[in-house]
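As a warm-up, study this chain.
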Amino acid sequence: MTDPSALVLIVEDEPEIADILQAYLERERLRTVRAGDGRRALDLHLSLKPDLVLLDVQMPLLDGWQVLAALRQRGDTPVIMLTALDQDIDKLTGLRIGADDYIVKPFNPAEVVARVHAVLRRSGRASRNPAPVLRVPPFQIDMENHAATVEIAGQAQRLSLTLTEFRLLVEMAQYPMRAFSRAELLEACLPEGDALERTVDSHVSKLRKKLEDLGVVGVPASVRGIGYRFRDLA
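Now compare it with the structure written out below.
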């Protein structure tokens, strides 16, 4: 079974396609992060160390071949190429540079998810236990021990959070690009009682105030008409 904590980096400059891929992957409880150009992809790969990269070939700044070559110089992160190019030479180029799989557009998103699961299993990343520590800079969250720290000026500051505030932080940090409705957060983080959706606003406000007191602004971020996201999209 695929590790539900696996992080997939989606490198795609067409927002509509990236939205679809993100929705299908997160429905499978996989974490996602997105990059809209090749340079951003390499930066995110270096900082977040994803378990798999979905990589479009025709990208701004650096194309998919350049990104793939750079990733292979760094290590063996599994890479699935996404491209409208369906010539055999393109497939061979991707496989020669080191791609683990190759999917031609237009594609069925469900097939992409199935390929992601298959590559994760083959790479051995599907069988590892979920990491008890979630790292989403500047946060480090120990989910097993219900402890969270935030790095301020190079120093780790311990957060004093209620159980509900901790649950909210974890839920959104696991999917930092996703917008959560109040109903979703209520179900995930306050399952014991009959709380109203506006109760979520109160807990989020208190969590945000504690972070602002430490100098962390905009976490969690409000999403108009929906609810909240871990932080504003860059």
